[in-house]
Amino acid sequence: MALIFVIGVVLLTGCASAPPPPAKPLDACAIFQERPSWYRAAKRAEQRWGTPIGIQLAIIQAESSFRHDARPPGRVSSAFGYPQAIDGTWEWYREQTGHRRAKRTNFSHAVDFVGWYTDVTERTLGIPKNDGYRQYLAYHEGHRGFQRGTYRQKAWLMRVARRVDRQAQTYAMQLRGCRR
């Protein structure tokens, strides 16, 4: 009987280990007050890659609404986790950074991925890391898709990219006023 109880506790603990999305996902201060480890992870990614925390948060918010196990609705894709990175791009990140055990369901790994990807985007396409609009278009369409201009045929995507840019600016403004 004790063994069944222990197994039950382990199973419940395993299910409870993944946090729900933050209660106030459009408020950077509230996010980091609720999840201090997320701030430390985003700050590390900013220091490593130079990608502003506001850009990191805005991309993840647009991609997964801060859901660790998000998948794209209504279509078959390997996109998964906080960053909605597809398998091939995630593998490329793991190879390039040496972070072989990185998981898309880990927020710290996800913000590091976003930092790395925006760094590659800046180096290959010349898009500054603080340009939320074009960084998001390149993130969503991939570097080759961005170069080909595939986003120009997707008015909905350009609207989302404008929203990402505005949200990144809002997060940045909020972060300047946070008490930590």
TrEMBL record:
Residues 1-18 form the signal peptide. Residues 4-178 form the Transglycosylase SLT domain. InterPro entries: Lysozyme-like_dom_sf, SLT_4. Keywords: Signal. The keyword Signal applies. SUPFAM superfamilies: Lysozyme-like. CDD domains: Lyz-like. The keyword rRNA processing does not apply. This is Transglycosylase SLT domain-containing protein. It comes from Thiocapsa imhoffii.
